[in-house]
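TEACHING EXERCISE
Course module: macromolecular assemblies
Task: Read the component lines below, then compare them to the predicted structure of the full complex.
Student: A.B.
Group: 4
Components provided:
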Amino acid sequence: MSTDLSFYKKAKTLAEVDNAVRFDVPITPDHEFYTDFSDVRGDFEDRMIYKTLNVHPKTFIFNQEANRVNKALLFLAGMRGSGKTSELAKISQKLHNKDCFFCVTCNLDDGLDLNDMEYMDILIFQLERLFQEFEKINLDVDKDILASLFDWFSERVKEVNKSIKKEGGFELEVEAKSPSWFSFLGVTAKLKSNITGNKENAEKIRTTFRSNFTEFSLKINEFIEAVNIVLRKQTIAKEIMFVVDGLEKTATTDIRKKIIIDEADRIRQIKVNTIFTLPIELMPMAQKLTQFCTVVSFPFVKIREKDSAIVEEAIKRFEEFVYRRIDASLFDKPETVRKAILYGGGSPRELLRILEYTNMYADEDVNKIFAKDLDRGIQKLAAQTSQYVSAEDLALLKILKEANAKGQYIPFDEKWQDLLEKLIVLEYNDGTYKRVNPVIEESPLYKQHVG
Amino acid sequence: MSDNYTEETRPLFKLLRTEAFRFVIVRFNHYSFLRQLESDLQSRFPDRPFLKADAAASDYRSILDAYFSINRGFFFLENFDDVLKEDRDSLQRETPQMAANNERRRQITAGLNLRRDKLAQSPIALFVFVPATTGELYAKTIMEKMPDLWSFRSLMLDLEKEVATAVSDITPEKYIPKAEIVNTDDTELRRLISLLDNTPETELAYRLTLYPQIVNAANDLGKYDLAFSTLDTWEQHVQDNEKPWIWIQKGDILNVFGKLEDALPLFEKAIEQASLSDDKNDVGLGHERLGYLYLLRGDLNNALLHFEKYKEIELELSTKTPSISMFKNNLAISYEKLGSTHTALGNLQQALKFFEDETQLFEELFKDYPNNVAFKNGLAISYYKLGELYEKLEDLEKAFFYFEKGLEMTELTFQSSPDNAQFKKNLKISYNKMGDICQKMGKNELAEGYFEKARGLGG
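Instructor-supplied answer key:
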């Protein structure tokens, strides 16, 4: 398995480039490839996230005194390939300390193999992850604290068992005395496996927890605060914070909307600091969400202004991004790297894809990437766009090009949202500024229909 | 046949040298590319495991289990176009069976998308295969159904080759779809022409009953010029909604003379007009003709598109009105056309399915109408198609079985009309075919017996 990041090293030869430009591997802040783009994302600054979390942006200390009852609920909305997961990893790493949070990351892709996910499932998964992390550090907690929640869960399990038919019932060993993190894990794991493995049981579990949700939320909140006290006493952290990543990958837009918008009340009832990644198509509903949480837009890095002027600071940061992965000596000249960056449109993943394609055409015997190799890679990528850019899309792109030329803004429309989700159009700043993906601009189809 | 395989796959093989997760989308216009790619990957990277699955016949769980059963290597997900589809009937409704299948497809696309990060943790190159007939914007569908996995795509390949037409058994004379077989007796034709000559032009209604009969008789006798001129005259006297069938017949005759480019607009015009009149039968026939025309041109992908449309229409018609055997017959023919085209494209498993469906329908028709020559003939052809396919698949036992069944039907047909030259020709071909297959199986004495029978028919 390639989650061992030590496997990914800077390329000193062309043969090593493929491994160095992997765009499917999320990079953590402590890795040599990591590049901090926080100050070049236009109107976005990561201090916005820290402030929302009541954390000092320089010292990374959580102001627990002034925020005894405040719990931050934050939705981070960004396009695919913008670097959200790496940014969240950075945030978690920075904030996971004794003066700040005990960070628990929940990757829904890893933990929940579900197409029809509900908020209840996510909550149970969060608890499972929490128990896993506490078990790892062998957090010493008063047995009474554990017992209260454990008893409550046990009662719910009994309720579920009653309603499940004999063939579908699950057996659970519930220890009456001295519940531990391990036994908690057993409960949540059993719940989760039934949710993911058995449709009938899943519904019964969800129904039981939903119908007892108010009590559930009270119990969880009590438990979370009790553990927060323990964490502070043991100078491990000030409070718990969850980072829930992968919500955008759930099956359909309707399911995502249901989880976030329709279940907003339930989300609000759980009093714990949480960052969710927000599916980009729900950004238009951000207004509704801001009634109870903070929505932060995480745009692509702005490499061009609206008037097409190049943002040199952003280009320099991307150069750093490239040279951390590929030795500068492998390029014929700096202009080749610059050109690749401009084609990337400010998306780290798209730039890595361009470098991957460029490397496919580079001659390993010469051990150099030339501008002509980049051109061939771009041409190949551009030609492929004819397989997913429709006539209707091109008509919209023409409108966008004209609007940008006149310095005008484009009003929101579901069709634009569709183009954003497909990365046919890229968004910058706080979403007010859009441009056509530069690779698409190179396609014969675009040139013919848009100019 | 020239193709772009080497050029398209060069960057792929370079990329694959680094063992890592890859998501590769392959569009192809000939199924042989799949086997070629499989073979090349296995020879270039012999230490890496290889596994494949049929997306059309699998569900999400089985695909996932198969994927994770290999820790590294290559995973082919074939017939991926199936999961991009959604079945609906002509009224956009889902039958229970369609709903179940559509749900299976949704589970696959949504599931793979959701598990993107998990899939990416294994150094497996995941290939999904989409035939060129899926449509130009197939990638847009993948983007919409699997946006996260799409964003992890490593490479898109578009494999193309010039494809030779497999029309050796679709000759113009056999092609003209008629229930009666060509004969040499022109008595009836002379009678009809005489009637026409002696009927005043003012008696249009009566003349209109003669034109179609003259066209049929003239075609049967191979008098195509006469048939064509009669169609011209007939066309002048009918409303627009009656013209599609006339245009189709004119197109058929032009095909006989190899004038494909002249026939094409006639078939297209027929479809357009028949659509306006909601005459589904003629729309279907128009598509069948266009499919055949593209087949003759060597454009198998377009041929397939039109044969698919033909099939959909005939399926709808035969389901709505099962009492009309013509629709069932046409449906069977559509399966045969699809099977033949898939055979030409190298997709033998798909072809097999179509020929089996064709055979089932002709068996039903033969059972209901044992004296119908066309159905007998259709059944015989379907058996031969199966026999030939099994021969290609190198299953000689099955090939023999079906050729023997085909021979039985051909003998029955001949016995019912021993003076019919075409039936005699068919029987001779059948004996020779049996001889060939027996020789391949090493049954030389039996083979000689069949060859002797063929020689006995003379000609």
